[in-house]
Amino acid sequence: MLGALIGDIVGSRWEFNPTNDYNFEWLSEENGFTDDTICTVAVADALLHEREFGESIHDWCRRYPNPKGGYGGRFAQWVHSDNPQPYNSFGNGSAMRVSPVAHWHDNVDEVLDAAAATALPSHNHDEGIKGAQTVALAIFKALQHEEQAPEHIDEILDECVQFSGYDINIRKADVINRFDETCQGTVPVALWIIGISDGFEDAVRKAVSLGADADTLGAIVGSIAEAIWGIPKPMKQEIQEYLPAEMKEVIAQFYESIKEK
Length: 261
Known about the structure:
Elements: H1 2-12, H2 35-49, H3 53-63, H4 73-80, H5 93-96, H6 99-104, H7 108-119, H8 126-145, H9 153-164, H10 172-175, H11 183-195, H12 200-208, H13 214-229, H14 233-239, H15 245-260
Helix pairs in contact: 1-12, 1-13, 2-3, 2-15, 7-8, 8-9, 8-11, 8-13, 9-11, 11-13, 12-13
């Protein structure tokens, strides 16, 4: 889960000011958390306190009405509504917020069901649900391999392709500087990046410097990369400076709870 937050915050500076420089400055005063972080924390909080996912996401987004980058148009309407309803979205928002369920549940069927449940309150289009499920599946399969996960990347990706039908045989020239906010345009690219990376930071740098939807692609890639390679301790510490106290509390409680499972 924390990998999604790091990818989001690192990418936030470049969401509307894209870069192709792999060696971009990792963090600066211009970075901050976006709706990706808010929604991911909301999903974790829902799991911790047995809340409905939609209720928790709505609550947390209302707490932070003006995140860096704002909310997308349709999702902003959903946030501001007193009676939010799903709007058949297949946007990549369902894929960026799903990571906590893969850490929380113990079998793949529960993970896939919970992933769908995180998408349904807003992103109830089949592609929105599939995008969330595919990311959760990648994380869950990586976690099953524990420290050996880097040796099983091809196997993990193959299972995701079999499940989703995504084509991840991607050429960089076809996706560089292409801003695509859909699940079907983002999740396959995230899986491709994982397949050509060799560590957490490398994966996030490749995602952000693609010049695409930097924060959300960074969040999705970061969430999967965490499960495969782990996160260097200094990165875990430095990202805390960008998060409010109540988010840090949820994160700490979440990781403590999954240790006890």
